[in-house]
Design a protein that fits this description.
Strands 1-2-3-4-5-6-7-8 form an eight-stranded parallel sheet. By secondary structure, the protein is α/β, with parallel strands linked by helices. The protein has one domain: Metal-dependent hydrolases (TIM Barrel). The longest helix has 15 residues. Helix 5 packs parallel to helix 6 and helix 6 runs parallel beside helix 8. The protein is built from ten helices and eight strands.
Length: about 280
Amino acid sequence: MPSFPIVDSHLHLWDPRRLDYPWHFPPLDRAFLPADFRAASAGIAIEALVFLECDAAPDQAFDEAQLVLDWAKEEPRIAAMVCNAPLQNGDAARADLERLAATEKVRGVRRIYQDEPDPAFCLRPDFVTGVRALADYGLSFDLCLKHPQLQATIALADACPNVPMVLDHIAKPGIKAGLIQPWADQMRDLARRKNVVCKLSGVATEAGADWTPETLRPYMDVALEAFGPARIMFGGDWPVSTLAITYPAWVALVDDLIRDLSQTEQRQIFRDTARTFYRL
């Protein structure tokens, strides 16, 4: 395990009694609260957490932000949050962005497009306009996509060079199917965009319950090689990650992957990249 307290750049919490989550399915269709996370992460020294929006009903984005602020009173390690916003509405999203930017702990926006049937959805003019607007409010953008959308995402990064972006879940490669190309080459290409960093998160989930370290390592190695330690951040993706791996096992797996790096590089991945990117 890391010899220092870590920063988890990707934590989910939700409560179906308070908000609506249309995507929920068993066993995730129940409340996952700060106390549950503390139990799941017992024994891991964590100094700060970044909450990621949980794809609640679109009209509840601000309700979710207020709920997170309530949870942060109970769990003060929640140092920042990334909220949902209707970026697909272009300039019409600016009122939402202004309100979010004025909300305590909000550092960025995520508008998931992983399930959009059009692989080039993120290049639609209004969406690009909405993403570009983030720079005017000092907000970053979390990229949540699947590997067939990665080529279009590279073009989005080119179209929005002033917006800090972070790639969630190493672009969800086709690990279960054993696919590594063209994803690996596209990851190296995306990494050439200096406004983009990468989360080492969600990898076991993409492999399924039968994952082994040997099946995950080639994909994690590509991400690390492409972006380098200074542009990689650890993400737990709890509780979605529980579909495939426990929280301590994921921390241990990442720790094992980077054990040959210098202490400075290990701290970058487990702590410093996230602190810099999310301005903790």
